[in-house]
Amino acid sequence: MNYKGRIVRDPKILGGKPVIKGTRIPVNLILERLSEGVSCEELLKMYPTLEKEDIMAAIACSADVIKKEVLVEY
């Protein structure tokens, strides 16, 4: 999924944390709620400005960040 049209970073919004475009909903909030067992349907009710594609974009963005992570050993 191409999440780059849905996830943005702006130093003026939440200190530059990745958020859903057009909102102040951070990616980490979506992931935390999912990890707590909140369903996509419940998230959409909790945050009416979200779309299902936003939730999928948050997951894809996180997977991309982890995939690019480099372990540095000393």
What does this protein structure show overall?
The protein is mostly helical. The protein has one domain: Arc Repressor Mutant, subunit A (Orthogonal Bundle). Helices cover 45% and strands 5% of the residues. The chain has 3 helices and 2 strands, in the order E-E-H-H-H. The chain has helices at 27-35, 40-46, 52-68; strands at 7-8, 19-20. The chain has a two-stranded antiparallel ribbon. Helix 1 (27-35) crosses helix 3. The longest helix has 17 residues, at 52-68. The protein is globular. Pfam families: DUF433. InterPro entries: DUF433 (IPR007367), Homeodomain-like_sf (IPR009057), WH-like_DNA-bd_sf (IPR036388).
Main sheet summary: 2 strands, antiparallel
Query: Which architecture does the CATH hierarchy give at level 2?
Result: Orthogonal Bundle
- Termini distance? 35 Å
Structural domain count: 1
The residue-averaged pLDDT reads: 94
User: Spans with pLDDT under 50 lasting ≥5 residues?
Assistant: none
Look at the helices and sheets and give the structural class: mainly alpha
In short:
With 74 residues, the chain is mainly alpha-helical. Helices cover 45% and strands 5% of the residues.
Topology:
Blueprint: E1 7-8, E2 19-20, H1 27-35, H2 40-46, H3 52-68
Antiparallel strand pairs: 1-2
Helix pairs in contact: 1-3
InterPro entries: DUF433, Homeodomain-like_sf, WH-like_DNA-bd_sf
Pfam family, one: DUF433
